[in-house]
Amino acid sequence: FDEVCEQTGITLTRYMMEVSRANPELRDLESLISGIQQACKTISSLVDRATITGMVGYANGGGSINVQGEEQKKLDVVTNDVLKRALRFTGKVGIIASEEEDVPVFNKDAYKVPGGEGKYQDVTVDIGSKYVTVFDPLDGSSNVDANIPTGTIFGVYEEAESMENCMVNDDSVEGSCLLNTLQPGDALVASGYCLYSSSCMFVFTIGAGVNGFTYDRSIGEFVLTHPNIQLPKRGKIYSMNEANRWDWDKPLQDYVTAIQTGQGQTKAKYSSRYIGSMVGDVHRTLLYGGIFGYPADKKNKDGKLRLLYEAAPMSFLMEQAGGLSLTGKTRIMDLVPQKVHQRVPFLAGSYDDVMEMRSYYDACD
Ligand code: AHM
Ligand code: MG
Question: Is the ipTM of this complex over 0.85?
Answer without folding.
Answer: yes
